[in-house]
Amino acid sequence: MTILLVRLRQIGDVVFTTPVITALHRHLPDARISYLVEPAAAAVVAHHPHLHEVIVAPRGGGWRGLRDDLRLGRALRARRFEIAIDLHGGPRASLLTWLSGSRRRIGYNIPGRAWMYTDVVARARDLRPRHSVANQADLLQPLGVPPPRPDVTPVVMDEGPSARAAIAARLRHHGAADDPLIVMHVSAGNPFRRWPLPAFADVAATLVSADPRRRVIVTSGPSETDAANQVVRDAGARLGLLGTRVMAWSHDLPLDQLRALVDRAALYIGGDSGPMHIAATTAVPMVSLYGPTLPARSAPWRPSPERALAVEVEGLACRPCDQRACITHDYRCLALITPAAVVEAAERLLRNG
User: Fold this and answer.
1) How far is CA 39 from the centre of its chain?
2) Domain boundaries along the sequence of the chain
3) Which of 11, 73, 214, 314 has the smallest set of CB atoms within 10 Å of its CB?
């Protein structure tokens, strides 16, 4: 049996599909599973042990992008997949699933696109209070696959040996191979999920002051290296001679090396973004900052939930929101999270090790 999985868009979205891959493999161990993904998140599934192939669909725009998708659709059709599962439901994913020509095409009952599937699955009316993994697992029902469970089918990502070797060499170069590492990711895909940079700097300086053996490595997306550098400068100004214990690794850290770095860390701190979900594929203790989103939807999907603490401001009438416009104009869902609350959660996890 040949199966095509389609999940486009962001890093965290793809991480949340990895329990589906494992569940499919457990139920259909002889199936050959291919995965269609966009370049930004391809590294998440590049080394997945239960995938036979990763197909990367470059994201284009306008007529040229449509032409490329039609060409890709013809190539998929020639492969004669028996089953295609659209784990996304967006217009492009629906089109590519339909163009694959698979005899059986499974997708959500989305108005205007449900006709592209042979098996239509109802989508939860309110997605926000339900975990994203559970939402996508609904698409396994037509195949009789039991739903994933965090203790049996957690999110996974294998970064590969070259990434592990690169991180080990880099840590040795900085004299940090034996330091207790704290990885702090300071950027996010949109301003609704971005905790203020001075708050990150406060947390970094406080954690190092409490234990000078600690090394804080500040990471960010490639377009936000200035943010990481600002956090390092601000924390360094407070720490004086200990300022070298906080450093920025941002512009040249691909996803596989980020995962390898987090896997060696004593703690991860960051907002609800792709790197947070990559961190969830490790056993590292995590402090996750939630603003417009809810832990119920995007908490780490893995065993030992006590090793991941959510920091959030509860009781706000505007939360969760659609992240299109802040009705209070001050992003209070994140701005009201105090550095002291994050430090307290971090120290609790570090004590429990």
Assistant:
1) 14
2) 2-143, 165-352
3) 314
The values of phi and psi at residue 143, to 5°, are -95, 0
CA distance 314 to 333: 8
Average pLDDT of the residues of the chain? 93
CB 255 within 8 A of CB 278: yes
User: If you average pLDDT over residues 261-279, what whole number do you get?
Assistant: 96
Query: Is the peptide bond prior to 161 cis by the omega test (within 30 degrees of 0)?
Result: no
pLDDT surpasses 90 at 300: yes
What's the pLDDT score for residue 191?
Answer: 82
Confirm whether 2-143 and 165-352 share one CATH topology: yes
Q: Let me know: does 14 contact 35? Beta carbons within 8 Å.
A: no
Class of domain 2-143: alpha beta
Check if the beta carbon of residue 274 is closer than 8 Å to that of residue 253: no
The CATH fold assigned to 165-352 is: Rossmann fold (3.40.50)
Verdict on whether the full-model pTM lies above 0.90: yes
Q: Where is average pLDDT lowest: 29-38, 157-166, 183-192?
A: 183-192
Percent of the chain with pLDDT over 90: 81
Q: Can you tell me the mean pLDDT for 226-249?
A: 95
Give the model's pLDDT for residue 64: 84
CA distances (Å), 227 to each of 171, 201, 209, 278, 317, in order? 22, 10, 22, 20, 30
Q: How far is CA 317 from CA 10, 211, 292, 320, in A?
A: 28, 39, 11, 8
CA count, 13 A, side-chain hemisphere, 125:
0
Indicate the SS3 state at residue 51: coil
Contact 193, 271 (CB under 8 A): yes
Among the listed residues 52, 82, 85, 56, the one whose alpha carbon sits nearest the alpha carbon of residue 68: 56
Tell me the CA distances in angstroms from 300 to 125, 133, 271, 272, one per residue in order. Answer: 23, 10, 12, 10
Per-residue pLDDT band at 126 (split at 50, 70, 90): low
Residues in the chain: 353
